[in-house]
Amino acid sequence: MYVCLCVYSALFLLVLWHPQWLILLVPFMVLTTMKAENKLPWWIADAVFFAGFALISYAIFEGQLEVNMIKSSAIGALFSLSGSEGSQTLAFYFNLLPFSQSIAAVLFAAPLVMNIALKIPLAKGIPADTLANKAYFAPSARAAVWGIFAFGFLAIFFIPCIFQLIKCL
Q1: Which DSSP state fits 121?
Q2: Which ranges in 36-154 belong to alpha helices (H)?
Q3: Which domain holds residue 50?
Q4: What is the pLDDT of residues 23-62, one digit of tens each?
Q5: Which value, to the nearest 10 degrees, does the dihedral of the CA atoms of residues 72, 73, 79, 83 take?
Q6: Alpha carbon separation from 133 to 45, 128, 137, 165 (Å, rounded)
Q7: What residues pair up with 122 in beta bridges, in sequence order?
Q8: How many beta carbons lie within 10 A of that of residue 77, not counting itself?
Q9: pTM > 0.70
Q10: 59, 85, 55: which is closest to 73 by C-alpha?
């Protein structure tokens, strides 16, 4: 599993990719996370990776992904946005942040590098577990991380997809 994680992580770090290709990487990220003793830091890294993925997708595929996500979403219907207006709106907010392209790239790349460096299987376990030194993470912290991740997933992907499905019926 670790070899596949390294290969696909290196691929996504070094080449321009389409968002659908992440289906190759994500299963190995999930499987290696489930093998770790302390899963909470990896869940946080996955949430950061998810945010970086969304921002990079918005930046790179400006004319495709944004238009579909905004025009077909509840936000697009609420404000009566056409595809081009939605694209301009998101591009406007994205460009307000200085170095937004670099920030998006770091949010995407840092968790991948962390996965490669800290999930390498060694005789005593993975380095992340050794560094954590059997640290205990409270269930409330776990619930907060899952809540943030679930809210992000619902807001960015699930609700727009359901709204689009309803519009097609």
Answers
A1: -
A2: 40-60, 65-71, 74-78, 83-96, 100-118, 127-132, 139-153
A3: 2-168
A4: 889 899 988 888 887 777 888 888 888 888 877 877 777 6
A5: -30
A6: 18, 9, 12, 47
A7: 125
A8: 12
A9: no
A10: 85
Provide CB contacts within 8 A for 160, sequence distance 6+.
Answer: 69, 72, 73, 74
Q: Which tokens go with 99?
A: 């170095």
Dist. CA 107–CA 109, nearest whole Å = 6
CB 69 within 8 Å of CB 89: no
Q: Nearest to residue 85, comparing CAs of 57, 19, 77?
A: 77
DSSP 99: T
What is the tally of structural domains in the chain?
1
Angle, helices 40-60/100-118, rounded to nearest 10 degrees: 140
The residue with tokens 């840092």 is 110
pLDDT in tens, 111-136: 999 888 888 888 777 787 777 766 66
